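Section 5.1 Outputs to date
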Amino acid sequence: MADEQTKVKYDASQIQVLEGLEAVRRRPGMYVGSTDIRGLHHLVYEVVDNAIDEALAGECDRIDIAIHDDLSVSVRDNGRGIPVGPHPTQKDANGKPMDAVEVVMTILHAGGKFGGAGYKVASGLHGVGVSAVNALSESVVTTIHQDGKEYQQEYRRGKPIGPVKMIRKLPKDETWLHGTNQRFMPDTTIFKEGIDYKFDTLVQRFREMAFLTRGLTIRFVDERDEHEISFHFEGGVRSFVRYLNKSREVLHAPVYVEKQINGTSVETAIQYTDGYTESVYAFANNINTVDGGTHVTGFKSALTRTINDYARKAGLLKDSDPNFSGEDVREGLTAIISIKLQDPQFESQTKGKLGNAEVKGQVESVVAEAFAQFLEENPREAKAIVTKCLTSSRAREAARQARDLVIRKSALESLTLPGKLADCSERDPAKCEIYIVEGDSAGGSAKQGRDRHFQAILPLRGKILNTERARMDKILANNEVKSLISALGCGIGEQFNMEKLRYHRTIIMTDADVDGSHIRTLLLTFFFRYMQGLVEGGFLYIAQPPLYRVEAKKIGVKYVYNDADKDELLKTISGDKVTLQRYKGLGEMNPEQLWDTTLNPDNRTLLQVTVEDAAAADKTFDMLMGDEVPPRKRFIQTHAKEVRNLDI
């Protein structure tokens, strides 16, 4: 028992109150999610969201975003500008009224989105966005053009270094200027991994925002390598659907509807393709509600009911036929649902799911009316859609029987799966991991080299089926896919159940050659389409086996993972006798080498698979693994230089 003298006294003096933006700097993850690259991008999104809100209010039609050479970011809009002038209630330390600009920039839960007068619709609801960015930035310069004048205030780590100042009166040729320009430099003491924005990731987000805000122009410049891109879509979500289906064979033109109903704006675009996967993306006030919500429920209900009603009425569904299920009518569907409402209620801080009960009926009413009208006016396209649903229904029944067989077989074979799965002895999924290994040779080495307590090995024989081009019944007939499903135990598609997942790390381990890359892509396609919960939950990884074994007297034995590191290492041991071995495949490693480099948690390198933008990933998988050759050829030609530089 601890000595009484060493105990820390716990009384009222121990209760801390974090003043101002100190709470944000102390716990940045609570406000921007993390302090890695995702949090860094989140800073940009928060500032851009404020500009988007001006566009949603009808006060802004252009946003300019720039990553500057010094790694600062500026976001400029041509909206109304943050109001300048004394705030009626907020006082500074001397009891004087604070300027409204300083209130917005330095006080949490302050903004124009709470009362409903400044913004009828807004993506930001909690008033922590730009103030959190300010707190987590080394410096921020806020510039406002309003009423023919230019105002400015500067901040260091969330604290103003001076009052809001009028810099100048605008000359006659600039009096048209209006709006807000925020330029911020992220704080490297917070973002310790460094400031390295990903151009492609930001482009995907800005493109999505432009699709969802019809008529808005977004211009994005990256001064680091002189990249520039602009987005402007008059078609709104209709253009979004066309973009997603650019490399797919479509059955009809997009069905588009936009309608106001009881203060809620409902905008949706629907288009069927000849594919087998469902691509439905939903947004509420431009926020991607990845977990769905009442607007998605209403949309799906309307679609299923409308197609069943039309099929019965047109005699395409006979009296003896059962109604189509939701899965049947959504096979091959690409749809965007975008709603804008004044008081959204999200079911979590991450805003992943919309909870407004009234929205379900509103969306259902709008979609059912518009889609029923489309089917009545376009009988040829309507028949093609219903025929696809019929085929899907029959394939779904075949898939159900195949799935039941897989489940029964898995239960009968218990956890052994002779000849394939070498399971681990640990039964706590959180402590278990499974390596999906290319080939029997590498599988044999992995089985011998692993730690049998917590590591399972599943060797794959050859390449698995391309699940982008196959229906569920065919997928479930593939032996390698059946082995995967049985081993992981969590089911697939609509039956996916994370609680039944037997391993909390699923690790893809393939050779560092073209065939290995292809197998890895096939596996990623399968997991993205049919076990997306693995990706979203952070349970999917890619092993990084070394490319070279370097042995020399000065260093002993070293393993290196790419050509650049190999060249650097060889420089340090020049003049020494060197034995260099390049591994063409995992099977060339003996069990001890495989353990030391790729299996041992203390030494190995794993890449965690994540998807920041599901819509972009959907389009990429379809383009790379689908039936259309020209888009894939263009992608390969565009990225040929990058491919030549890869260590494959």
